[in-house]
């Protein structure tokens, strides 16, 4: 009897230990992850990422500049016809984009409006990376005749003529706008706009909860993540190789690739992508090698100094962050993909004959099943 | 952070460069350097920082010799890196700072993807190029 009891006791212990292992293990449920997969998944966090103020912008992180930047962002005084503001296309209620295939300012542009979350983490700005700082990128739509259509003189005059903006400018830059030349006023306005945009950070997602539970071995958090998203995540870090470019907490390498998308926004008009972007960057008075960089050491200008222009840059576009991706349709630089499912199908059937001969050789058709496509989409929806 | 990384790489390189650079004829390079000998040339190199982070700039210090009866400093050193399996190179072109005969530092290298990269060292003896390569794996 005593021996039987002992055996029964051991059996119970083994059962309890087994159950505990199931609960505390890294991947309970029907979709287990290998150690390698778990290690890759953990590199996508933690979130949010801590950032420091931008040394190239002396008002980055300054409270008054952030408040002034927000006023500028939402004020139509910065458009030639006073009919639109930054917020018209970068609508806070639409995840700071507009839901349209391509942006429409004073007239239509050729590219999709980029959502403004997590901009401080970027190295390059715009689909072609023509700007190397958020403040330089903020100048571009102000001066673009298709977007806000202003000139430096017009910006200075509008700030001076709008009491709330004139007051904000004085508080942030310690001088009345009338005391600055038009180009200085334009750059200061852009730096305040950048200070505001840097504060737009996406919140913690369903994926972040899962990732942190996985890191901590929290069984409830792991179990709460849907199985279909887990299967999609396995594809993302596995056979899909999506994480070779969409890696890290912000799900991007911040660089540029050709993925076989059309180069012609309209008949007879070519979008050169990164090739044109590097040329514009080098020609810009507002790049980080120039006089308007507030970082006197120019340590911030290293990427700009060394960026390489090659024929392969033709038709490359910036790898976007995937955070909030389910809320930023339509997709791609030209807004040509209406849904996430269409995006995933593009990678499943990627047209190799359309890829540049020097482009990423990892890009091969994934030949996904309908179920795998649904799983990948389910995963993307959790970001 | 990236600005700090650039700064640290440059300052560290300036501070420690002299110790690494002895003479081309001397082949007992410091233990921290990787040493290659092929195609009639010798290259010793090390990176700053030592552990390369994906997407972060780094520098390489190189001492190169044209090997032969009498070892000589090359007329020129050129370095680059690529991902052979991916069919592309770096998106950045390193800039050279000459530290002495056959001794240079290259700044501005960035590995923008995880995976297998390969350095290429071109050591020139006049017009004659001798190419040496070294593989390196970059994780996340």
Helix tally of chain B?
A: 1
Strand content of chain A: under 5%
Would you count the extended β strands of chain A for me?
Answer: 2
What is the correct CATH architecture of chain B?
Sandwich
N-to-C series of helices and strands of chain B: HEEEEEEEEE
CATH class of the largest domain in chain A: Mainly Alpha
**Shape verdict of chain A:** globular
Which pair has the most extensive contact?
Answer: A-B, 29 and 28 residues
Mean pLDDT of chain A: 91
Structural class of chain B: mainly beta
Strand order of the largest sheet of chain B: 1-2-3-7-6
User: How is the largest sheet of chain A built, in terms of strand order?
Assistant: 1-2
By CATH, the superfamily of chain B comes out as: Domain of unknown function DUF4426
Helix content range of chain B: 10-25%
**How many separate structural domains of chain A?**
2
Order of helices and strands of chain A: HHHHHHHHHHHEHHEHH
Helical residues, percent of chain A: 40-55%
Give the beta-strand count of chain B: 9
Largest sheet of chain B: 5 strands, antiparallel
SSE topology:
The complex is a heterodimer of chains A (383) and B (140).
Chain A: H1 2-24, H2 35-42, H3 63-74, H4 86-89, H5 134-143, H6 152-161, H7 163-173, H8 182-197, H9 206-216, H10 219-224, H11 227-237, E1 256-257, H12 274-283, H13 302-306, E2 317-318, H14 340-348, H15 370-380
Antiparallel strand pairs in A: 1-2
Chain B: H1 2-20, E1 34-38, E2 41-48, E3 57-66, E4 76-83, E5 88-89, E6 95-100, E7 103-110, E8 115-125, E9 128-138
Antiparallel strand pairs in B: 1-2, 2-3, 3-7, 4-5, 4-8, 6-7, 8-9
Structure, described:
The complex is a heterodimer of chains A (383) and B (140). By secondary structure, chain A is an all-alpha fold. Chain A has two domains: 26-48 and 204-271 and 322-383, Cytochrome c-like domain (Cytochrome Bc1 Complex, Chain D, domain 2), CATH 1.10.760; 52-201 and 274-313, Cytochrome Bc1 Complex, Chain D, domain 2. In chain A, 41% of the residues lie in helices and 1% in strands. Chain A has 15 helices and two strands. Chain A has helices spanning 2-24, 35-42, 63-74, 86-89, 134-143, 152-161, 163-173, 182-197, 206-216, 219-224, 227-237, 274-283, 302-306, 340-348, 370-380; strands spanning 256-257, 317-318. Chain A has a two-stranded antiparallel ribbon. In chain A, helix 5 (134-143) packs across helix 8. Chain A starts with a helix and ends with a helix. Chain B is mainly β and 140 residues long. Chain B has a single domain (2-138), classed as Domain of unknown function DUF4426 (Immunoglobulin-like, Sandwich). Chain B contains one helix and nine strands. Chain B has one helix spanning 2-20; strands at 34-38, 41-48, 57-66, 76-83, 88-89, 95-100, 103-110, 115-125, 128-138. Chain B has a five-stranded antiparallel β-sheet. The longest helix of chain B is centred in the N-terminal third of the chain and has 19 residues, at 2-20. Chain B is globular. The A-B interface holds A 40, 43, 52, 55, 123, 244-245, 247-248, 253-256, 295, 297, 299-300, 302-303, 305-308, 312, 358-362 and B 1-4, 6-7, 10, 54-55, 57, 85-88, 90-95, 107-108, 110, 112-115, 140.
């Amino acid at each position: 009897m005593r021996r039987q009891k002992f055996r029964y006791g051991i059996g119970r212990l083994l059962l309890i230990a087994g159950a505990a292992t199931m609960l505390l293990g890294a991947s309970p449920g029907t979709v287990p992850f290998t150690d390698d997969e778990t290690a890759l998944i953990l590199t996508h966090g933690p979130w949010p990422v801590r950032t420091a103020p931008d040394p190239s912008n002396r008002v980055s992180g300054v409270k008054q500049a952030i408040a002034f930047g927000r006023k500028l962002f939402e004020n139509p005084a910065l458009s030639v016809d006073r009919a639109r503001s930054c917020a018209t296309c970068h609508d806070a209620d639409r995840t700071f984009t507009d839901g349209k295939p391509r942006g429409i300012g004073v007239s239509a542009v050729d590219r999709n409006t980029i959502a403004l979350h997590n901009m401080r983490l970027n190295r390059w700005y715009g689909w072609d990376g023509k700007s190397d700082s958020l403040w330089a990128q903020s100048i571009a739509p102000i001066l673009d005749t298709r977007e806000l259509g202003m000139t430096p003189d017009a910006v200075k005059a509008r700030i001076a003529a709008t009491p709330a903006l004139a007051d904000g400018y004085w508080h942030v830059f310690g001088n009345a706008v009338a005391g600055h030349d038009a180009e200085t006023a334009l750059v200061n306005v852009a730096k305040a706009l950048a200070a505001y945009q840097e504060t737009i950070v996406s919140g913690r997602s369903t994926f972040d909860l899962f990732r942190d539970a996985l890191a901590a071995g929290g069984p409830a958090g792991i179990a709460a993540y849907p199985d279909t998203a887990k299967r999609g995540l396995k594809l993302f870090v596995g056979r899909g190789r999506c994480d070779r470019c969409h890696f890290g907490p912000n799900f991007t390498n911040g660089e540029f690739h050709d993925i076989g998308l059309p180069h012609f926004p309209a008949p007879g008009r070519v979008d050169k992508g990164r090739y044109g972007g590097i040329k514009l960057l080098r020609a810009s008075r507002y790049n980080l090698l120039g006089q308007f960089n507030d970082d006197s050491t120019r340590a911030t200008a290293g990427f700009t100094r060394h960026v390489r222009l090659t024929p392969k840059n033709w038709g490359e576009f910036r790898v976007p962050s995937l955070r909030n991706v389910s809320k930023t349709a339509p997709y791609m630089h030209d807004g040509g993909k209406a849904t996430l499912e269409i995006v995933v199908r593009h990678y499943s059937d990627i047209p190799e004959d359309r890829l540049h001969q020097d482009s990423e050789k990892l890009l091969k058709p994934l030949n996904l099943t309908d179920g795998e496509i649904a799983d990948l989409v389910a995963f993307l929806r959790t970001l | 952070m990236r600005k700090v990384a650039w700064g640290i790489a440059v300052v560290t390189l300036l501070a420690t460069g002299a110790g690494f650079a002895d003479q081309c004829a001397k082949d007992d390079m410091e233990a921290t350097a990787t040493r290659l000998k092929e195609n009639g040339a010798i290259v010793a190199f090390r990176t700053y920082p030592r552990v390369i982070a994906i997407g972060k700039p780094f520098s390489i210090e190189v001492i190169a010799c044209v090997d032969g009866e009498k070892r000589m400093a090359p007329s020129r050193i050129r370095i680059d890196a690529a991902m052979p399996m991916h069919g592309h190179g770096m998106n950045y072109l390193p800039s050279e700072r000459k530290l002495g005969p056959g001794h240079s530092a290259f700044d501005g290298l960035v590995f923008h993807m995880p995976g297998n990269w390969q350095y290429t060292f071109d050591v020139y003896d006049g017009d004659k190029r001798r190419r040496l390569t070294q593989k390196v794996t970059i994780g996340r």
